[in-house]
What does this fold into?
Amino acid sequence: MNHQGHGLALEHPVFNTPNHVRFPSTTAPRTRQYEGYTSPLYPDGMGETYELVDFEVDAPEDSWNPTLVSHEGFFTDVPGFENIAEACSAKMLGSLSLARQGRWFYWGYSIDPERLTDPAEDAFENTIRYMARQRDALTVPFVCKTRRTLWVYLALNEETGYLRGIEEHFLGSVKPESRADYEPTPEGLRAWLDANQAYVFSGKDESHRGDRYGTIFEVDQDAKRLGTPNAERASLERWIAMSSSGDADERAVARRLLTRYVDAAIAPPDWDGAAEWYATMRERIVFCDSAGFVWLEDPRVLEREARG
Amino acid sequence: MRSIVRTFVALLLALALLPGPASAQGSLEIVGLPASAPFTISASVTELELTIDVELESEWHMYAYDVGGGRPVGVELAEDGAFAAAGRLRTPFDAHGQILGAARFVLPIQRVGRGTSITATLSYQVCDPLMCLPPQQLTIRGEVPPLRVLLVAADKGERTARIADWMRARQLSVDVATYADVTAERCDAHDVVVADSDYFGRHRVSTELVRAFPRTATPIVAVGFLGTELVQGQDVAMTSGYI
It folds into this structure.
């Protein structure tokens, strides 16, 4: 990206405390790569035009500023993740120049005062002061890429005709048994995603790790047979109900799914008391692909409790 | 005997402060304490918290909240000051809402303007089982030490000096380390770590060095290209492997 930003979350403390920051802006027509997409900072998509602000006095000479690329969902499921500003990116919406997760803040511009604009200087000071308050914030560790990665191959193909993701990267990113009927064409990927994306998972174990792609995905046949998308609360509640079923097979499947999708740090020693466990944890848990496709204890709840 | 107990309690309070937040603490002046007050009081402040320690004599108490009797403890900051409350006052209390013995009141604060001084008013009423003294107010005032920032950079050259000077002009206390010599202990001893990066191609720090960055409990502002390497290297769910 260059020196500019857009989609700023102006209500965020980094734009308000102690310095009230307001950037002069210029209006620009929406460019093609942003059409048809949404992001946390553009939940309804981008209008015909958007407002650009300068964080640096001009574009970096012979270089660039990197962004955190969300692609509409790479880390937006991380509880407490703060999307604060997007960058001018050749990629779709969701490329962040300012973001926070737990005790980490990403500042995607230079901090050299010779490069910063006056409003950016104020925002950077606010950022330091805001982060000083995050010592007890909880950071969600990265375990694996989200299932959105597989969708991006299709989105990039539709945008630019890019085929390598569909023909090569997809094959390297999904276990062979989970793509037996996969046709390496745009239509084939679309059909595969329609049938399987809701049931895709990955995790920490070696079978979900690869040298080249890092994360290896698998389709959960248990969840798929039951028609229970693995990230949905209704699915969790159904597995909990099934875990005390009189049918031994049904009970076994439910307990297998609960073991697979409930973070071991908060799972009960066994699932005999699944309903009681859920009654206690119901308001405290959230599903997160990035954390290993698990229901984990929401760090925001833990932080609230710790802060009294 | 009472002085021995007081010394012991003061020692415990001092020890309790040792592993506390990294922020530098400044002692504050207490104004208006009657000589006959049945308690002792001291106060300190960081940019994040105003802390008041009281030690009530035996049989005397204050109130943490309104129980229909004495006036509860309250702390107000001067409205035109550089600091404002950032949360509710935290006080210990027993089953009857009473504050007894040695107690610490903590008010989260945040900077809302320029300046280094702070003035607060402590409102309270002390009672024993038979009577309450009239409600009182004390003024607490002094200087707030600046936040301590550890600036980690490729080197200690002109660019780094420029950034450090800018931070100092913004009323921040700055120490400088390089990616090669930064340690967890130095990070932990500061309020915020700013991990700087020049533009890609000019960043002059190897990926290996960034990946060896110490793990710290201190919040980190990760800047630019090296910042993306840092969040990935520390396994923060923030990039999903793409930049």
Chain A has a mean pLDDT of 94. Residues 118-132 of chain A form the longest helix (15 residues). Chain A is about 30% helix and 15% strand.
